[in-house]
Amino acid sequence: MPELPEMENYRKLLSQHLINVPITGVTVNREKTINMETPEFTQALLGARIVFVERRAKHILFHLHDGRRLLLHLMLGGLLFYGTEAERPERSTQVELAFGDHILYFMGLRLGYLHLLSVKEGEAAMGKLGPELLDRRMTPERFAGLLKGRRGALKSLMVNQQVMAGIGNCYADEIAFEAGLLPTTLVQNLTPDAVARLYDSVRKVLTEATEIGGYMEMPFMTGDTVTGSYNDKCKVYDREGEPCLRCGGTIVKIELSGRKVFYCPDCQHDE
């Protein structure tokens, strides 16, 4: 599932190409992806202009010129591609938005969605999300406050979008590894030093992954050499049975509350 770094990378790229360019065509191949009948959705978007692209947690919000919002959540396996008809990806698309001779292809949205919302509806949809971890207002003290009084496994807390917005399975494991903490560590048992290491690790891992385009499996457009550059940088995620890059131990995989968890039992500890 695309997480904060992947969606922030998309936000930057979308902002470079779509701002103030009129939408000239709308194709809906899967009506369940949108939140209204196709003719209504199409009529509302034709001629509309995107004036601002915002990321909130794992969502993209396209701010339209008339004040409405297009809310995108890619969920599992969702992808974006921007190109001409000749560059059309060889996979099914759920929605396509044309901007002149270029098209924004929305793919893999079997579980994801693209909803047209009013300002009020958009604010309500984002209202329950926790704070942004890379926000300049996120200090070590504020971060420690997010954990105060919480209970349960560290990974379960980090992927809880109402507590920390934008982290999913991959980066929760990478952050825990960077901090030297087991993903199964009980939050209520973390020492102040462990919390400080966790804060530093959150900032380091998410910043690094964002700067090099996250782990998406295909480029955003022809010639894009940034998107997906983090694919080969993961130190524990999806590396079961491989040697730990820090201590040489063996990466293991377990399940925690139905989620895959990857870690090194030799150099990650409870505190």
Automatic annotation (TrEMBL):
FPG-type domain boundaries: 235-269
EC number in record: 3.2.2.23, 4.2.99.18
What is one Pfam family matched by this protein?
H2TH
Q: Which domain of life is it from?
A: Bacteria
One annotated GO molecular function is: 8-oxo-7,8-dihydroguanine DNA N-glycosylase activity
The cofactor named in the record is: Zn(2+)
The transmembrane segments are none
Sorted alphabetically, which InterPro entries does this protein's record hold? Answer: FPG_cat, FPG_N, H2TH_FPG, Ribosomal_uS13-like_H2TH, Znf_DNA_glyclase/AP_lyase, Znf_FPG/IleRS
Q: Which GO terms describe its biological process?
A: base-excision repair
Its recorded reaction(s) are: 2'-deoxyribonucleotide-(2'-deoxyribose 5'-phosphate)-2'-deoxyribonucleotide-DNA = a 3'-end 2'-deoxyribonucleotide-(2,3-dehydro-2,3-deoxyribose 5'-phosphate)-DNA + a 5'-end 5'-phospho-2'-deoxyribonucleoside-DNA + H(+); Hydrolysis of DNA containing ring-opened 7-methylguanine residues, releasing 2,6-diamino-4-hydroxy-5-(N-methyl)formamidopyrimidine
Q: Which SUPFAM superfamilies match?
A: Glucocorticoid receptor-like (DNA-binding domain), N-terminal domain of MutM-like DNA repair proteins, S13-like H2TH domain
> Which positions fall inside the Formamidopyrimidine-DNA glycosylase catalytic domain?
2-112
Q: Does the keyword Metal-binding apply?
A: yes
Which keywords, in A-to-Z order, does the entry hold?
DNA damage, DNA repair, DNA-binding, Glycosidase, Hydrolase, Lyase, Metal-binding, Multifunctional enzyme, Zinc, Zinc-finger
| PANTHER family according to UniProt | FORMAMIDOPYRIMIDINE-DNA GLYCOSYLASE
Q: Which family does it belong to?
A: Belongs to the FPG family.
According to UniProt, the name of this protein is Formamidopyrimidine-DNA glycosylase
